C-alpha cells in the first residue's frame, strides 16, 4: 500500500509540471527548483507514507479475532493489482489538475483578471504574484494535499503517526523558511513564503483547493468504511459463508 501512495504523490507533483508546459510554450520553465524536486520525496511527503506503511491497521485486533474470515481479505495483496494502482494514479492526476488550475485562475491571473497580491506596509506596486511565487504556492498546496490524502486513508491514528504528522508540518515549514532566507535578494524565492503568508487570496484559495483535490479520496474512504462494515456484518451473520472474491477488496 505504501508503494501505491508513493506513486500517487509523485503523479500529483509531476502533473502540475506537465500541465504547466502547455501554458509556457513547451519551454523548460518550471515552477519548482532543483531543491524542491530533491526535498519533495526526501522530507516533504515521505514520512507520513512511511509511518502509514509501518503502523497502519485498517482492522483492529479485536475485529480480526471476532471475524477470522477477514484475514483472507487482507493477505492477498489486492492493493497491488493493476486496477487498484490505476485508480490511485488517476487520483494523483486529479489532485495535480485541481492544484494547478487553482493556482492558475486564482493566483496567477490571466487576460481576464490581474494576479493575486500580497500585503505590504509600503503599498509597493511590486506586490503581485509572479511566476516564481505561483510555483511556491503550488508546492505548498501539493505538499499539504498529498499528506491529507494519506490521512484520509488512515484508520489507526496512533501516537507515532500523529508525531510524524507534527514533525512533517513543523520540519517542512522550517526548511522552507530557511531556504527563502539563504538565497540572494534577486532570487525569486527570496522571502517568497513570507509573501505567501501575507496574501489573503492564497489563504482563501487553500481550503477550496484542498476540498476539491481531496473529494475523490473522501468518497473513496466513505465507501471503503461501508464495504468493511458490510463484510463484518456478513461474517457475523454467517461465519461459515464463503469469502468474497478478492477482486472486490477495497481498503
From TrEMBL:
Q: Which UniProt keywords apply?
A: Magnesium, Membrane, Metal-binding, Transmembrane, Transmembrane helix
Give the highest taxon in the source lineage. Eukaryota
* A biological process term (GO) from this entry: phospholipid translocation
Matching Pfam families = PhoLip_ATPase_C
Q: Which GO terms describe its cellular component?
A: endoplasmic reticulum; plasma membrane
List the transmembrane segments. 37-55, 82-108, 128-148, 160-182, 202-223
Q: Which InterPro entries match?
A: ATPase_P-typ_TM_dom_sf (IPR023298), P_typ_ATPase_c (IPR032630)
Subcellular location per the Swiss-Prot or TrEMBL entry: Membrane
Locate the P-type ATPase C-terminal domain: which residues? 3-229
Topological category with respect to the lipid bilayer: Multi-pass membrane protein
One annotated GO molecular function is: metal ion binding
Query: What name has this protein been given in UniProt?
Result: P-type ATPase C-terminal domain-containing protein
Amino acid at each position: 500500500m505504501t508503494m501505491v501512495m508513493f506513486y500517487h504523490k509523485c503523479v500529483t507533483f509531476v502533473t502540475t509540471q506537465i500541465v504547466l508546459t502547455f501554458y509556457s510554450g513547451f519551454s523548460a520553465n518550471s515552477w519548482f527548483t532543483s531543491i524542491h524536486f530533491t526535498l519533495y520525496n526526501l522530507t516533504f511527503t515521505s514520512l507520513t507514507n512511511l509511518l502509514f506503511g509501518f503502523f497502519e491497521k485498517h482492522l483492529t485486533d479485536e475485529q480480526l479475532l471476532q471475524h477470522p474470515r477477514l484475514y483472507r481479505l487482507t493477505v492477498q495483496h489486492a492493493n497491488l493489482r493493476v486496477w487498484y494502482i490505476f485508480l490511485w494514479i488517476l487520483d494523483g492526476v486529479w489532485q495535480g489538475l485541481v492544484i494547478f488550475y487553482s493556482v492558475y485562475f486564482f493566483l496567477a491571473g490571466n487576460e481576464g483578471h490581474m494576479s493575486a497580491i500580497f500585503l505590504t506596509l509600503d503599498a509597493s506596486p511590486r506586490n503581485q504574484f509572479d511566476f516564481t511565487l505561483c510555483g511556491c504556492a503550488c508546492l505548498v498546496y501539493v505538499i499539504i494535499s498529498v499528506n491529507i490524502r494519506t490521512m484520509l486513508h488512515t484508520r489507526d491514528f496512533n501516537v507515532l503517526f500523529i508525531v510524524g504528522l507534527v514533525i512533517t508540518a513543523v520540519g517542512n515549514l522550517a526548511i522552507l523558511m530557511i531556504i527563502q532566507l539563504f538565497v540572494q535578494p534577486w532570487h525569486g524565492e527570496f522571502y517568497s513564503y513570507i509573501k505567501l503568508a501575507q496574501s489573503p487570496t492564497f489563504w482563501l484559495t487553500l481550503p477550496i483547493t484542498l476540498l476539491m483535490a481531496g473529494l475523490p479520496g473522501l468518497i473513496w474512504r466513505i465507501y471503503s468504511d461501508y464495504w468493511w462494515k458490510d463484510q463484518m456484518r456478513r461474517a457475523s451473520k454467517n461465519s461459515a459463508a464463503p469469502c468474497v472474491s478478492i477482486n472486490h477488496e477495497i481498503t
